[in-house]
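Record type: monomer structure entry
Structure origin: computed from sequence
Chain ID: A
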Amino acid sequence: MKRHINIYLIFLIVFSGCYNSTKKNIKELIKPDNDGYIPLPENVAEPRDNISNPDKVKLGKLLFYDPILSGNKDVSCATCHHPEFGFAEPLDLSIGANGKGLGFTRKFNEPNHIPFVKRNAHTILNTAFNGIDIQGVYHSNESPMFWDNRAEGLEAQALLPIETLEEMRGDKISEHDILNVVVARLKEIPEYVTLFEKAFKSNNAIDKVNLGKAIAAFERTLITPNSRFDKYVQGDENALSMAEKDGFELFKAAKCNLCHNGPMFSDYKTHILGVVDNEKLPFSDGGVDSTYAFRTPSLRNLRYTAPYMHNGKLKDLQAVLEFYEDISNGPSKNNHVPTKHIDSLAKQVNIKVMDMSLIISFLNSLNSEDFDKDIPEQVPSGLPVGGDI
């Protein structure tokens, strides 16, 4: 309808004989089109076999902060996904098992032979919407997770870090045994027995399936459908500054929206970009099926998620935009990725240096401070909340 009105306005201007004197005002008459961008939903879809309730969310939050889930009882989900950092982490590659400290202060204990976590920690904020398309459609049990989309749904995502050596498992318990060990530990804690029974309305409720479901239920509460950009696309013209509005138009003109689209600003597909390897890893990370493809990350809450890309090699948003400018016009940055293999969509991106500050201003409109920052004072295991931080 708006397009028809805009065309009609132009028609009147042109054929009223005043086109030459008013053509400079046509841009003012036509409101910029948001190109299908819609606000983030205010409610989260849930899988049919894991409908939320307050008891389940409460349980999931305690489990999220409890290092009882890790092999050496020293790491929790919150160790690398802490609310102080927007449920992400300011390190390029996380230090999980056999580490101490939080954020920039976290170091490996000595002696150490545990490797760094393989990839940069995604924020958990809004992962409940992973997979959402430009129409706002998604299926919670099929939501793609991790940089390589190797898991579907938050329930599956919640368990994989527990099983991973460098993240939470450590090297004292095998991958095959770790979930059984964790379940056995939880069953020995009377408070958890009661909490699981209340959350799942059944006796003997502690098992690895319900463990994943409880954590997922909590993670689905961590959403930010209230950024200034959301208010803008809902009709509040004053929610964005002129610089941010200009940045939005430049973002689209530069074709960043070819991959960063939909309410989460991600197509959730994998693309080959040729980011330089992180020297902290003793190998070159080949991504999906050794193709060097990685999933498009969300652009929401970027304030909390630096450094950027799958291995944290780009320190700030300016570096990210400069990276795209370079690969669109030049060779691959990674010696393992031939230039001809760089994704064709990335080659179409056309970012000008003079436009970068405005685009960054726009990206900041996707940030939101409104999320759960409350940390439990204690967890049922009696261990330090959040692990050795």
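Annotation 1: The longest strand covers residues 270-272.
Annotation 2: The chain has 15 helices and six strands.
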